[in-house]
Amino acid sequence: MLAMHTFMRDAYLKVYPESKQERPSPEEVRSSVRILDFHRKESDVWELCNLAVYLMPPSRYVALRYGLADDYDRLDRLHRSGPEPAYDEGVALESRLCRNAEKAAESIGDVRLPDFYLEKLNGELENLGRIAASPDAVHDILHISPDFLTKYGIDKNASATERSCQAEKAYRELDARFVRMTGRRPYADEFFAFLRHGKEKVAEVDRPRPVHKPILRNPPSKGRKMGI
Question: Which three-class secondary structure string do you get for 156-194?
Fold first, then answer.
């Protein structure tokens, strides 16, 4: 397809200007992007969702079109560098790739997002709710991974109150995305009102109550004993 050739040629010459080849005009590139967006939107969403959920390699076109190429190339080099790549850098790159792929997929209109993508995000919403309700859940290594915490900006070394607030913020943002993606009603206000009500009831039950000593209305007199 001519539009694909024009787009890829422009992307190549941006990186290798020393080749001295003539770049397509900006108008040619914009026209090519419009054509490709119209014809490829469903396949682009599919690739982006697979990248976000499974870290499946996207086509070079999708990586370039949605601004993912630099991070993906860095992650690929990191994985090829040896059996023990820089763990923290890898987690940060994967989290950023995931967030940006999600943002790109959800920005494409008139395409239904795949079920596996929505199910994955729904599971993440549930985990955010768990952490908001019980901040120590961040230490559940079976269900809460480091890249999940990085993705949603939750610091497992912060105080319990801070972790709960971080999780609530992330929950509300993801819940709002679900409203936009699926048209369902928002859950956040109802969920956190329920949590606060539950905590208030627990606090009421656990609050120490004053000890009331019985008051004797007519205490016996301490008169002298009768002699014999």
Answer: CCCCHHHHHHHHHHHHHHHHHHHHHHHCCCCCHHHHHHH
pLDDT tens per residue, range 168-201: 999 999 999 999 999 999 999 999 999 988 766 5
Q: Does residue 36 contact residue 68 with C-beta atoms inside 8 Å?
A: no
Write down how long the chain is.
228
The alpha carbon dihedral of 101, 165, 131, 157 has a sign of positive
What is the residue whose two structure tokens read 């912060």? 158
The contacts of residue 126 (CB under 8 Å, 6+ apart) are none
Q: How far is CA 210 from CA 161, 201, 203, in A?
A: 29, 18, 15
Residue 64 has pLDDT above 90, yes or no: yes
Count other Cβ atoms within 10 Å, centred on residue 119: 11
Give the whole-angstrom CA distance, residue 191 versus residue 12. 49
pTM of the model: 0.83
